[in-house]
Structure formats: C-alpha cells, structure tokens
Amino acid sequence: MQEPILGNDAAFRREWLIRGRNFGDGQVEVTATRFDRYMGAQQLHTLPKAKRGESENSENNQMAAAKRAKQQVRLRCKAIAADRMITLTYRENMQDRSRLKRDFDALRRRLGKFQDFQYVAVSERQKRGAWHLHIAVKGRQNYRVLRSVWRSIVGADNGNVDVRNPFRQKGLRHKLAAYLGKYLTKDFAEHKMNEKRYWTSRGITVPERHPIDHILSDDAPRAIVLAFEAARQVGASLDQCQVFWNQDLGCFWLATRENVHG
Question: Suppose 16 and one of 47, 111, 150, 223 were both cysteines; which one would form an S-S bond, judging by CB atoms 3.0 to 4.6 Å apart?
Fold first, then answer.
C-alpha cells in the first residue's frame, strides 16, 4: 500500500467537479475534473512555492504556459465567433518575430480605421525558419483590401495573404478555435518564459465558467454523464462535438458546435 504523502493522519476524499461555459448559439464547453480533497487542507498553505519562471523544470513550465495560452486562444476565438482564418506570410525568409509583430500592428491599425477588426492571432515558424501569422476572424473578409494593405507594409513583392475556413463547412467554429491553438504547443520552445504567445483585439469578453455539479465520491462515469446532460440542458447539439478524456489526470472536456440555421 502506498504511504500517505503527508503522514499517517492525512485523510483524502476523491471528488469530481463539473463546470461549464456558455458562448451562446449552441457553443458550450463543459469540464469534469477529479481532485483529492485533503481534509486538513490548511496545512498545505505552509508548503513553499517556486517563484514564477524559477522552477527547476523550466521545460515543463514552458509547456504549461503554452497550454494555458492555447486555452485562452480557444476561448477568445469562440467569444468572437471566429469562422475564418487569415494567414499573413513573407516571401523573404523573415526570421524576426518582433518585426512580425510590428508589421501586424501596422495592418490592424489601418484596418481598424474603417472596420471593427476583432481578431485572435498566433505566430508560427515555417520549416525554412520564416515567421508567418494565423489570424482568426469572423465573417467574410475583403481579400483585395487585406492584400493591398499587407503588401504596402512589407513590400509589393514580399507579402501574401490567404483567407479560408480550414474545415469548409458551416457549424464548425469550435474546431477552428482548437485548430488555431495547436500552433502554441507545437512551437512552445520558440518563446521565452512569460513572453506573450498570442495577440488579440481589446474588449473580447470570455464567458465566465460556472459550477454545474459537485460529486463527493470517485465516480467518473457519473461525472461524464452529468457533463453531457449539462450541455443538452442548454440546447447544445452533440453532433460533431469534441471530447477529451484522460483517466490518469482525471480530466474530461466536452465542446459543442454552434447551432446551424437553415
């Protein structure tokens, strides 16, 4: 039998917490998370914690930061109802990420003069080493205007713009949100600790996560059933939903698609 971590008097109770966010129009995210409640929890506050960025395992810290950024990108994409992705590229082998940020800032400022340009942007390094930028946006985009503005910034023969829906089907905004976030964990080693890993427009409001249920026992099947029921109760469709389950971590995640009209 495994020895108790905090001594023979330590008493733990395994529980499950179900929580959710509702983005409207059918899109919800519901999580079921397992945790061990230590009945003498006040003693845990005396344990020393490493300062941010100073842990011995810096690589794990970087990956954890990338995963947090990935979550924020996904949530913000859903909050703005992003359904298309703009990709900005350079013909030259442009390897300066700070220049990418300056060029993008120039683009968004110009676009902001004549439209409400809401966006979530993530950079990616190509195999040749050059940076390019993926930008999640909502609605049809004026390709000619985008290309004209981008080339006026980076050079007429130096820039290219692509606008597309990676999934070529209505009702899959939840997948676009997850698709954009994958670049953050793919290139997590490219970023310094505490460096901003994504850029978003101001004023994006992400729905708060609300508690749904609390199971005072180790009952994973019931927790997962409650997660699905919570989604259905608010009118979400489970058609083409996304799910993630990790038994070792005790974590279940459910994301539903938006309602398809017509």
Answer: 223
Q: Name the β-bridge partners of 242.
A: 255
65: exposed, middle or buried (Cβ count in 10 Å: 0-12, 13-18, 19+): buried
Predicted pLDDT of residue 2: 44
Look at the block and give the residue holding tokens 């985009």: 141
Mean pLDDT across the chain: 84
* Residue 31: other Cβ atoms inside 10 A: 19
Please tell me the distance from the alpha carbon of residue 180 to that of residue 175, in angstroms, as a whole number.
9
| Architecture label for domain 78-200 | 2-Layer Sandwich (3.30)
What are the boundaries of each domain within the chain?
78-200
**CA dist., res. 4 & res. 45, Å (int):** 18
* CB of 159 closer than 8 Å to CB of 86: no
